[in-house]
Amino acid sequence: MFKKIITALMLTAYLFMPAIVAADDAVAPAATEQAAPAPALKPDPSGANTGGAADVVGASAGAPTADDMKNLGPKEPLALKLADVIGHNRIAINIVWTLVCGFLVMFMQAGFALAETGFTRAKNAGHTMAMNFMIYGIGMLGYWICGFALQMGGVGGVASLGGATQLNGEFAISLFGKDFGLFGTKGFFLSGVSYDAVIFALFLFQMVFMDTTATIPTGSMAERWTFKSFVIYGFFISMFTYPLYANWVWGGGWLSQLGKNFSLGHGTLDFAGSSVVHMTGGVAALAGAMILGPRLGKYGSDGKPHAIPGHHIPMALTGCFILAFGWFGFNAGSSLAGGDFRIGVVAVNTMLASAAGAIASMFYMWKVYEKPDISMIANGFLAGLVAITAPCAFVNSVSAVIIGAIAGLILCVSVFFVERTLKIDDPVGAISVHGVNGAWGLLSLGLFADGTYGDGLNGVTGTVKGLFYGDASQFIAQITGVITNFVFVFVVMYVFFTVLDKIVPLRVSAEMEIDGLDQHEVAVSAYPDFTIHKTP
Amino acid sequence: MKKIEAIIKPFKLDEVKKALNDIHIEGMTVTEVKGFGRQKGHTELYRGAEYVVDFLPKVKIEVVTTEEMAGKVVEAITGAARTGKIGDGKIFVSSIEETVRIRTGEKGKEAL
Questions:
Q1: What is the dihedral of CA A287, A291, A297, A298, to 10 degrees?
Q2: What pTM was computed for the model?
Q3: Chain B interface mutation, best of A120, A295, A302, A308, highest count of B Cβ atoms under 10 Å
Q4: Arithmetic mean of pLDDT over chain A
């Protein structure tokens, strides 16, 4: 049955392609950055024609201007030739940086897999790992089919990477006399004009971020989710849900243009994805967990939650360390430029927030529950990372520590609120780590951005300032982002899961759940040598 | 022949083994079990939720020996396993009908 659905989706994409290509010229591109004055629109699959003299223009404070190149160039032929090499090298540093950081973020898939499996039970370990393993490939293919195109098809070029100007098709509607970019229309199957060295590098980097979102709900929905419906979910979130909001913030879409169009700061800003990645994942996790229902034995008849301890704390905490390591690629890589020396600030802010989050959670648990529960501390560690992900490039270190510490406290309050008040069973705290703190991260940018970075972002001159540094409008742009993300993602995913449940049941049978999902769902036992507890 | 089944606290296993070796008992079977008697369980904590652990880990030692030795075995185990606190465990003595050494086919006292 779901083979038919996948075939239908692919056929639709194929049918879509000619229409998109034809619509090229009719669609008004909503380019957010000035494309480098290089031979634009011609794909460069070998990379041989990327990076040259044009890429030294404005590359640093003392770099030649376009006029310098035109006027002085012919008088200094050797300098002109050297400019070509220098431009190539500048782009090379940025592309290498972006790719290597992308590889680090890919490694976070292992971090998520180990963290989730460690915090859940042994009888389901094979299934939990299987979901985290397969989401990598499923998300990647869905994103390759159409997700990347919908997200970045209209971004208009990435100056630091020396190209991607072929991605100039943004579908927009007109409201209040302004263009509201909704989705991209170039780059399906990374073919045609998008078979290009720079675009491929961009694809890899963006794809690993999307996969981070896609893997988050596997945490809140662990231990009772059917593998079949999970596979369909994987395609849906990578092909549609993630890319649409991501287009609005990172692809040149309407949220990013709130500054240019309505004077709201620099538009909704999210440096590395507190909302684009983590809040989307966390809100999807919320919708999924609500529809799935709690694990058997989680709540007593009096509604009181029972503990279901994770089976491998060392595995879980190692997973969290791997996530923290990959996060250096996640945040610092989002500069898309090794030559942007703010990356040191970004990386340190990231680290500091993680430490502050862990320590804040530690003190909270120590005070309120008399013991520093390391599983909650690990969650607080991640919450700090999630929260700093949006503001990391825009704040100073004191703000980073404050943001991380508040994240750690919010995390603890949220976990107990979700579990005890909302009565939603979230085995690993995904909703609280990623959803709630993703929102906090986006908001904190609008509070703490201190005006030392970000000149020209989203087409708005001047550096980025938050409420505490004199710009309330940035905070409003951030609030708009949070509300948009929550409403869009929750409604779409809630409807999706509800409909999917009717076609392919989301939840395994009670017998299977008590027996453990490993053999039933993925035909392996994680620990065949051991006698595993089968109690609910 | 008598079987002596002793349920003891896990950390006492080495002491009991040594005490039995001292009276020339050189074979035993050990199983990891859980249980409770008048010693109740305890509560543990996980992410702010308390849960009751009724069953406590114990170790069961089984020794089969001659009627003459049975009393000495019970004494040795009791002496080594006792801490004086609740949860020290219990010993059960039962009769064994037959014993066979699988390798040689010997039966009865020779098989012990």
A1: 20
A2: 0.90
A3: A308
A4: 93
